[in-house]
Amino acid sequence: MKKLVALSLALLMMAGAACASATTVGICQLVQHEALDAATQGFKDALTEKMPDVEFDEQNAAGDAATCVTITSKFAADGVDLILANATAPLQAAVSATADIPILGTSITDYATALDIQEWTGTTGLNVSGTSDLAPLDGQAQMVQELFPDAQNIGLVYCSAEANSIYQITVIRGYLEEMGYTCTEFAFTDSNDVASVTQAAADASDVIYIPTDNTAAAYTETIANVVIPAGVPVVAGEEGLCRGCGVATLTISYYDIGYKTGEMAYEILANGADIATMPIESAPQFTKKYHAANAEALGVTIPEDYVAIE
Among the residues of the chain, which ranges form H helices? Predict the structure, then answer.
């Protein structure tokens, strides 16, 4: 009997040790839409390939920044081994929640803007690294010029609550105005005024540009219901937006940047890489894509080097 009890205790201790040593990654995703979903999946696929026993605590903030704070604060309190912050609001919340747990961002346009870093060197110097979803904004401006050389007024539609959307709009506006376009900004503050702001933009614009913006990406149907009947084409910052309401985009693969982030997580968790000195990684390639049905409906001629969105 004593041997049986001792064996049982030993097994319980082994099981407890196994549980204690399990690697847990907390995932905070801002909102559910095609691009962010793909980045999360790529991250999980890459990390589980290398660490099959890793456990994920996956949470979605449903587009609410305050919920991001609640989620990441709980991750910090639970002592997860690493946090994946998918989009800017989760990244900012995670940084406020912990200075010790490694934080990897993905689907972040510009880390210097998101983290208010004044002198950017390519690394954060904090417990933060990750991947950027920024496609070349000069290339997107050239796309507008290539497809719509006779347009005069460009409406810039974005969410004013997203710091990285403001960054993109500021940069691309400079490129477009250098090309001779007149640019007007139309900003919504949240999902409640997406339709009305888009309608104002459609009424005043020959073409609309929408950056990689999470609120816009979550409400592409609302945007499409305005711009398609109005006959105003949208050039979008990424493929998911374009599929929902656009005509063309110069886009990255969100799955690929998520996958790269998963590889970075492995280096941190398994090999002890110093996250503070890990450079922010970018997408390996960019692709010109178009929405065939929307292009046809709006009478837009697409060059042969564009790839149709499936």
Answer: 2-21, 34-50, 65-78, 88-97, 111-115, 137-147, 163-178, 194-204, 214-218, 220-230, 239-245, 254-271, 292-298
CB environment 273-308: b (16+ within 10 A), e (fewer): bebeebebbbbeebbbbbbeebbeebebebeeebee
To 5 degrees, how large is the angle CA 30–CA 108–CA 170?
A: 110
* Three-class SS state of 231: coil
- Using alpha carbons, select from 23, 19, 34 the residue that is nearest to residue 251: 34
Query: What backbone torsions phi and psi does residue 145 show, to the nearest 5 degrees?
Result: -65, -40
pLDDT 10s digits, 121-163: 999 999 999 999 988 999 999 999 999 999 999 999 999 999 8
Distance CA 255, CA 163 (A): 23
The span from the CA of 50 to the CA of 239, in Å, is 29
- Which residue reads 């609120």 in tokens? 215
pLDDT in tens, 180-198: 999 999 999 988 999 999 9
Q: Tell me if the pTM is above 0.85.
A: no
Residue 210 backbone zone (phi > 0: left; psi -120 to 50: alpha; other: beta): beta
Q: Which residues pair with 250 in a beta bridge?
A: 288
CA atoms of 128 and 123, how far apart (whole Å): 8
Per-residue confidence (pLDDT) for residue 304, from 0 to 100: 95
CA–CA dist 117, 97 (Å, integer): 18
With both helix axes pointing from N to C terminus, report the angle between 254-271 and 34-50 in degrees, rounded to the nearest 10: 30
Count of other CB atoms within 10 angstroms of residue 146 = 14
CB atoms within 10 A of CB 116: 9
Residue 223's region, left for phi above 0, alpha for psi from -120 to 50, else beta, is alpha
d(CA 169, CA 209): 9
